[in-house]
Specification:
- There is one protein chain.
- The protein contains 15 helices and 23 strands.
- The chain is an alpha/beta fold.
- The chain folds into two domains: 229 residues, Aldehyde Dehydrogenase, Chain A, domain 1, CATH 3.40.605; 179 residues, Aldehyde Dehydrogenase, Chain A, domain 2 (3-Layer(aba) Sandwich).
- Strands 15-16-17-14-13-19-20 form a seven-stranded mixed β-sheet, sandwiched between helices. It has a six-stranded mixed β-sheet with strand order 10-9-8-11-12-22, sandwiched between helices.
- Helix 2 crosses helix 6, helix 4 runs parallel beside helix 5 and helix 9 packs across helix 10.
- The radius of gyration is 24 Å and the shape is globular.
- 53% of the residues are buried.
């Protein structure tokens, strides 16, 4: 375990000090114990990282053919798999989430690299005769240097979401993890260099969003920006990218609904709905934090849900049996609790939880019943282990409530009527809909949002296209010279 060490920035294929010499002390949120120290990047470091990425793109990385990029991505997948124990422990200790969940995230990270390693074979233009003696063909080229910003809730997995398609497309990358959770991304960059990615292809510069992040996305040497984070921060990133017209992908907040009808299989729906909000302590953009329940079932469902949630094993993130770890910090814990208190003030009933833990950044699984969709707790992203239970009368009202939010990231429908599931999937304003199953982000399936949940897609082949430019070439096959003016 590489803890209690100092982590430098990772620029041009090696660990390096920050120009300012600034370090941040990292702690384990579950215990408050010291974890490590990490260098924090400033503007001069971003300049170095972007220059290294540009040099790699103009040099060895830009000359690497797709089949070699594929081999390197497979090699990186192998390296992540071989170092999975170290990476899982680093992530669990740095983020505070249950190591059982982290292991699943690592598995997806490996699969992401493998998927895009194979997807390099799909990078191809097309050719077609235009008519007469003109022939058209198109070329696919990497967009260029990609700035990628990942948040603290999934620092390693979301790094793979972004790195894999960018590298498959032939882009070079400057990745900025959150300053509180940089260690797994830095280790991933080390592994990329160890397996043969050329210096400068992958650079990692932890730092604060309003300073380092803003400078990175505004940098004239950056061609494409991919951001995951809050809707508020995404709006600022969009503003910074607007004047230079940078390519942009945004994956932002959510307030995702979980629709449960009276004809649902409750033996399936209840434990799945519990997992859908608490699996990452609610710190997930697509967590199904609004559970909409058909009125005849409401009281029974709320009681059964609360009973099941009360049996979750909350505790030490490194214990294999732990199902829910801590939140990211005590400050975030207090923010979550303030939402719960506001819910109480608005008239919601706290059926389960609702009080902070007495150690670390823990907050218990919390259930708010009697919630109306107009309440703040039903409209704002709490980003913690708090679920709001909202009754509805019929399918029409369920659809209205589901869409009555500024977000549109994900939704889940539980019903014994297959036709109803498909009807709702077509009418819910969200980037993804699951029918009678709890899972959301799957390798190879496009993931992203409607409305203020952002735009662009990750995890699918569409993502690869967002890192590629299309160049059209038109050529004459005529034996006769052109003379448009008849001269």
């Amino acid at each position: 375990m590489a803890t209690e060490r100092e982590y430098g920035l990772f620029i041009d294929g090696e660990s390096t000090e920050a120009a300012s010499g600034e370090f941040r002390d990292l702690v384990e949120p579950a215990s408050g114990d010291a974890l490590a120290r990490a260098a924090m990047a400033g503007e001069a470091d971003v300049d170095r990282a972007v220059a290294a990425a540009r040099s790699a793109l103009d040099g060895p990385w830009g000359k690497t053919p797709p089949i070699e990029r594929s081999r390197l991505l497979h090699a990186l997948a192998d390296a992540v798999q071989a170092n999975r124990k170290e990476l899982a422990e680093l992530e669990a200790r740095n983020v505070g989430k249950a190591i059982a969940s982290v292991k699943l995230e690592l598995h997806q990270g490996v699969e992401n690299f493998r998927f895009y390693a194979s997807a390099t074979a799909s990078i191809a233009g097309r050719s077609n005769p235009i008519g007469g003696s003109l022939l058209h063909y198109s070329l696919k080229e990497p967009v260029g240097v990609a700035a990628q910003i990942v948040p603290w809730n999934y620092p390693l997995m979301l790094a793979t979401w972004k790195l894999a398609p960018a590298l498959a497309a032939g882009c070079s990358v400057v990745l900025k993890p959150d300053p509180a959770t940089p260690v797994s991304a830095l280790r991933l960059a080390e592994l990329a260099t160890e397996v043969g990615f050329p210096a400068g292809a992958v650079n990692v510069v932890p730092g604060e969003g309003p300073t380092t992040g803003a400078y990175l996305v505004s940098h004239p040497g950056v061609d494409k920006v991919a951001f995951t984070g809050s809707t508020e921060s995404g709006g600022e990133v969009m503003r910074l990218c607007s004047r230079p017209i940078k390519r942009l992908t945004l994956e932002l907040g959510g307030k995702s609904p979980n629709l449960v009808f009276a004809d649902a299989n409750l033996a399936d729906a209840i434990p799945s709905a519990v997992w859908g909000i608490y699996y990452s302590a609610g710190q997930s953009c697509e967590a199904r934090s609004r559970v909409l329940v058909e009125a005849p079932l409401y009281d029974e469902f709320v009681a059964a849900f609360a009973e099941a949630a009360g049996r979750l094993k909350v505790g030490d993130p490194l214990e294999p049996e732990t199902q829910m770890g801590s939140l990211i910090s005590t400050a975030h814990r207090d923010k979550v609790h303030a939402f719960v208190e506001q819910g109480r003030d608005e008239g919601a009933e706290v059926v389960l939880g609702g009080e902070p833990g007495d150690r670390g950044a823990f907050y218990p699984p919390t259930v708010l019943a009697g919630v109306e969709n107009r309440m703040v707790v039903a409209q704002e992203e709490i980003f913690g282990p708090v679920v709001t239970m909202i009754p509805f009368e019929d399918e029409r009202e369920a659809l209205r409530i589901a869409n009555d939010t500024k977000y549109g990231l994900y939704a889940t429908v539980w019903s014994g009527d297959p036709a109803r599931g498909h009807r709702l999937a077509a009418r819910i304003k969200a980037g993804g809909v699951a029918i009678n199953m709890p899972y959301t982000a799957l390798t190879g399936i496009p993931f992203g949002g409607y409305k203020q949940s952002g735009f662009g897609r990750e995890l699918g082949l569409e993502t690869l296209d967002s890192y590629l430019e299309t160049k059209s070439v038109v050529v004459s096959t005529s034996a006769k010279p052109f003379n448009p003016f008849g001269l």
